[in-house]
């Protein structure tokens, strides 16, 4: 029997081979594609003309871990504000590269506001929104020529809500001539993919280097996104930007984005991701960054911040102490990361367990770097703490949360302090 068994393996498929595109600001370089890790990016929702509000939101997104931040450049006021936003970020020591999102009038704005064109590190062009008829070709060419002039990479981002209607009509005509026509859904997929690839090829003909082009084909359906990117990935070598457009609000948006992107990432498809969440009124825009990071980290593709393992609770855990402690520790760890990632290399790999009773508590705590097993209902009011699989101490009393946080701080300082070479 043993000879018939093979080793059980896990992990994603080998990453799809792609070109590597660099997005640069000053000394900061973010590489998309090639053998670089998958990049997390986000987008502001402030009025770009409001320099201070936009700069503050960019700072918050960058602090949360967004490695690129996209801003809307939709009118002269927004374009004029971009250099001032970059200046404010420099004053705050925020070097995250900025991506300009252009629709309809990007050719005019980039031409009329050269300081904006220079301050941005990357342009996003939607080929369905660069112009109609004869103007489309010249206006697309103008934007690509400006990208060449300022040495900027470009994301050619196709969206099925704004697909080039002339191209779609062409694909539909071709389909009508088939002996067995495709479904309307397949025609739409083909139009998205063809638009992305043909516009990328046209950009290269206009002089933009192939390693300065990133592609995306955004849709709002999970199965649609998976189908489109599976096919797109086989037909080009450009790095791919993944994202479910109009994913939605709250748990729906998170679940839909996770379902779609996880399948593609597991198949080795995708070089940068953006989680397009609709914030609740007054909600935190940084949530989309955290979700993106957590998708990559829970899949084992990247590590951003120590992970907290916590049980869901049951009838044994009627106390809310373990829930509050897990939440406090998770918030604490994320808040510390901007400082820790500079002081303590490798700390993002740490696992912390906060468990609620004796059933799985000690076992899970032993598997973590540092873990605590809180007492469940009717259990002895004691909380054993395990460090690297060994019981180190037992906490009691009303200050368990504070004492455990201090233990975590001490562990990080000792375990992840850089080695000093004399």
Automatic annotation (TrEMBL):
Cofactor(s) needed by this chain: [4Fe-4S] cluster
Bound how, and how many: what does the cofactor note say? Answer: Binds 1 [4Fe-4S] cluster.
Signal peptide stretch = none
Recorded catalytic activity of this chain's protein: (2E)-4-hydroxy-3-methylbut-2-enyl diphosphate + oxidized [flavodoxin] + H2O + 2 H(+) = 2-C-methyl-D-erythritol 2,4-cyclic diphosphate + reduced [flavodoxin]
EC assignment: the record states: 1.17.7.3
Q: Which residues form the IspG C-terminal domain?
A: 308-408
Report whether Iron-sulfur shows up as a keyword of the record.
yes
List each copy of the IspG TIM-barrel domain by range.
29-292
One Pfam family name is: GcpE
Q: Where does [4Fe-4S] cluster bind?
A: 311, 314, 357, 364
**Alphabetically ordered keywords of this record:** 4Fe-4S, Iron, Iron-sulfur, Isoprene biosynthesis, Metal-binding, Oxidoreductase
Family from the record:
Belongs to the IspG family.
What function does the entry list?
Answer: Converts 2C-methyl-D-erythritol 2,4-cyclodiphosphate (ME-2,4cPP) into 1-hydroxy-2-methyl-2-(E)-butenyl 4-diphosphate.
Its protein name is: 4-hydroxy-3-methylbut-2-en-1-yl diphosphate synthase (flavodoxin)
- Give the source species: Undibacterium rivi
């Amino acid at each position: 029997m043993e000879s018939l068994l093979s080793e059980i393996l896990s992990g994603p498929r080998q990453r799809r081979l792609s070109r590597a595109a660099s997005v640069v600001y000053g000394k900061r370089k973010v590489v998309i594609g090639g053998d670089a890790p998958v990049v997390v990016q986000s987008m502001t929702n402030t009025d770009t003309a409001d320099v201070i509000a936009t700069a503050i939101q960019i700072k918050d997104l960058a602090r949360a871990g967004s490695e690129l931040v996209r801003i809307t450049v939709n009118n002269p006021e927004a374009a004029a504000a971009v250099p001032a936003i970059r200046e404010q970020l420099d004053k705050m020591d925020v070097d995250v590269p900025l991506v300009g999102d252009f629709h309809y009038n990007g050719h005019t704005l980039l031409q009329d506001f050269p300081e904006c064109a220079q301050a941005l590190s990357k342009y996003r062009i939607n080929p369905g929104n660069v112009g109609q008829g004869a103007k489309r070709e010249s206006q697309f060419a103008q934007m690509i020529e400006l990208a060449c002039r300022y040495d900027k990479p470009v994301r050619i981002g196709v969206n099925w809500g704004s697909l080039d209607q002339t191209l779609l009509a062409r694909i539909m005509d071709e389909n009508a001539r088939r002996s067995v026509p495709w479904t309307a859904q397949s025609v739409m997929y083909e139009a998205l993919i063809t638009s992305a690839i043909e516009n990328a090829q046209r950009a290269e003909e206009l002089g933009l280097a192939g390693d300065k082009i990133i592609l995306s084909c955004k849709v709002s359906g999970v199965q649609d996104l998976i189908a489109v990117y599976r096919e797109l990935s086989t037909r080009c070598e450009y790095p791919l930007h993944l994202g479910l457009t109009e994913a939605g609000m709250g748990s729906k948006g998170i679940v839909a984005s996770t379902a779609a992107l996880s399948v593609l990432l597991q198949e080795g498809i995708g070089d940068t991701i953006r989680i397009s969440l609709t914030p609740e009124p007054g909600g935190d825009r940084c949530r989309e960054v955290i979700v993106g990071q957590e998708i990559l980290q829970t899949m084992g593709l990247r590590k951003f911040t120590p992970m907290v393992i916590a049980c869901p609770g049951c009838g044994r855990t009627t106390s809310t102490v373990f829930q509050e402690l897990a939440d406090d520790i998770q918030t604490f760890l994320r808040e510390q990361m901007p400082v820790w990632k500079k002081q303590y290399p490798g700390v993002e790999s740490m696992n912390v367990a906060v468990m609620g009773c004796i059933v799985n508590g000690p076992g899970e705590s032993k598997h973590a770097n540092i873990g605590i097993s809180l007492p469940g209902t009717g259990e002895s009011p004691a909380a054993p703490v395990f460090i690297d699989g060994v019981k180190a101490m037992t906490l009691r009393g009303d200050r368990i949360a504070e004492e455990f946080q201090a233990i975590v701080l001490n562990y990080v300082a000792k375990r992840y302090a850089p080695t000093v070479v004399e």
